[in-house]
Amino acid sequence: MKQNSEQKKQPGLSFPSKGEKESVELPEPDFIPSVGIIYENDAWLKPLFSALTQAGITHEGIDVRKHGFDLRASQHHTLYLNRVSPSSYMRGNAGAISHAHALLATLESSGSLVVNGSRSFHMETSKVSQQLLMNELGVLTPETHAVSSAAAVLEMIDQFKFPLILKPDTGGSGALIRRIENKEHLLALIDDPEVFPPGHLMLLQEVIQSSDGTISRVEFVDGEFLLAMKVNPMNTFNLCPAEGCPRNPIETGVQADAHFEAWPDVPHDAVAQAREILRAARLDIGGVEWMDTSDGRRVFIDINATSVYRKDIQQALGVDGFGVVCNYLSRELAKEAAKCESRLYRRYR
Fold first, then answer.
1. Cys staple from 282: which of 106, 115, 119, 313, with CB 3.0 to 4.6 Å?
2. What is the model's pLDDT at position 295?
3. Which of the four pLDDT bands, split at 50, 70 and 90, describes residue 10?
4. How many helices (H) and strands (E) does the chain have?
C-alpha cells in the first residue's frame, strides 16, 4: 500500500488498516507516562518522592507557591496527585489553596485524571462541607454553628451550649482552634483578630470527649483499608501524624505533644463507615477521624486528604503506605496510557 504525502511512514505503533492486510505504522506518543505532584509543603514529600523513584514512576513536583498555568493548555502529565494542605495559610502560603482549586478545576476540564481532585479538595478545605456530607450519610457529627463575624456571634450567643471548640472552616494541623469555656470567655475574645481572623468562616462546635482520651484514624488507598491508629494529644489540637510536626500548646508553659499507636483490631463497622465517607467524598487517598464516647456514640470529626504515614505505625502493622500509593498510581498510569494509545489508533484509522 502506498502512503500519500500526509501519511509519511514513521516508526511507532502498528495496527492493521481497514479492509487490508497490511499495517499502518503510527507515530510514537511524544510523552512518557508521568505523574504531576501538586503540593505546597516540601516537608511531607520526601517519602512520597522516594517511593515514586524506587517504583520507577516518572514524576514532577508542581509547587503551587510559585506556579502559573495556561487555562487552555494546562495538561503536561498523564495524571496528577493533589497534595496541597488546608493548613497552608499557617505557613505563610495564603494563596496556595485558591491556586490549587483553580488548577484542579482546569486540569479536570481538560480531561486529566486527578487523584484527590476538585471535589475531594473542596471537602478537604471546608469542614462545613465535610459535616454536611457525613450528616447525609447518617453518621454522627458534633453539633456545630457557623458564624461569619463577631456580630453574628453576639446575635447567636444565647443558643450556644458551653464549653465549645472554636475552629476555622478551612483548617488543618490544629490551625486556629481554641476551647471556649463559657459565655464570658467567648465575649472576652470576640474582638481579637487572632481569634476571629478576617476572611475566615468560623465554627463553634460541641466538645466531644472520647472514652479513653484518644482520637481514632483510619487510612485508605483506592477504597482499600490501609491502616488504623489512635492518637493521644497532650496539650495540643494538632493531630498531624508527621514526625517532627510542630504542635502549638493549648496552655502556655506546658509541652505540647501527641502519641500515636497502631490499632490492628479496629472495629470492622467503623472501617466500613469511614470507607463510605471517603467514597462519597470521592477521596482516592485519605483518612477519616472519629471519637468513641463513653455513652456509646461514634462521632466523626474530620476527613483528611494529605495522608502522612508514620514509620513506627507502618512497621508495627507491616504495611508500606507510599508503596501501596505507588502501586495504585502505576495502575492508573497504565489505564491512562492505554486510553492514549486507543485515541491514537482511532485517529489514524
1. 119
2. 94
3. very low
4. 9, 15
